[in-house]
Predict the structure.
Amino acid sequence: MHELTHVYRKGYGIMINKSTIAAGFALLAVIAIAASPAMGGSLDFIYDNTGYWGDYADQNDDVYYLTMVEVSSTDYSAIAGGLAARSGGGLDAITTTDQVNWNIQTINNNSNTYSMLYREDSDFPDYLGVRADGGLDRIYAEDYVNWTTSSISSDSYLHVRRHWGGMYGDNVYIVAVRTDGTLELLEQAEENGPFLSSIISTDQYVSTSFHLEGLIDLEGFIAVRADGDLELFSEIYDEHGNSIGWTSTFYAAGNYTHASHSEGSLYALGPDGVDDFWTVPDTVVHVSDNSYANFGTWQEERLAITSDGKLDLLDNGISRLHSRHRYVAMADGMAIRSQNQYWPGDLNEDLVVDITDLNMVLAAWGKTPNDDHVNVPLADTNLDGIIDITDLNTVLIDWGKTGFKQ
Ligand SMILES: [Ca+2]
Ligand SMILES: [Ca+2]
């Protein structure tokens, strides 16, 4: 195991103790339970190491997860971690209060398999889960211990987000993209009451954003259309303040698949990259040309997963790829590792270990990320912040190998 020293990510002021990683590994090894089917992947902690984001192999390859979502979207200092869906069914809550000791709790009485999880913005962990059979569940625990699952709908869904609405912002809505691509609004008229369903658009959609409070002057949400354009939905009221329905307008043209709201900006992602919308479409900042599949945050950093599964730190209009491994989903400080990984010696990830990879080590020889932010992370196979004989040996050991790691 690695030495217990603090590492400091230059320029960001975040301190993370390496004992976090050590403790997490030990715990993960202990909780290894039954092997699951060959879907999804195992868990990594993602953290900073000497100037750039890195990742560690976990010590537990027996538990596989399909997807995960962060525990806390509002207060990282209180509790962090994620809710992760096991590939064989069931849910694990993986949390820490001190960034050192991680607790993994398998949620009782829930053996459902989930393809998508979404955390509602609430004072306690409160989730929506789209089941593999398409149905929609609510999963919550007011005390982080005793979890309750209830079925919201047995219809079939692809994507869900929760929103507030009504004149005073206290109505609860779930906006759901149905499996047939249409957009459904599920409204809960009273706390813990049933959800009333209505179709608000029969056009074709792939996803929606979180509630837009603070981003624009309108109450509403952004829907990502199947053709990649963004559409703005907002609620309309009569003269008494009663909701009389929803209206939508064109927001922006693009080739997007996801839209996410973070600190007053709307991030829209897709195969053409990430765009950052500052309040209205004519102040778009194009952040990255990479192709993206997902978006999240960790300690006020904006992290995205590329279509190739790499973690990308999106910082003030700069994209920096920060992981050696490939991932399918992420949450606070953790990510689910894809089962398809490049050979450690395949530095340029072209599925062959050859002279190109060797030359990448030689070109960065003796350097640190401070010397070269671009090439050192690519060549640093063991994530120790220096390019040396260890990295050279990794390439030589894998020399001639092709395809993904076996
Ligand atoms: Ca290569
Ligand atoms: Ca190294």
User: Anything to note?
Assistant: Residues 346, 348, 350, 352-354, 356-357 surround calcium ion (ligand 1) (CB under 6 Å).
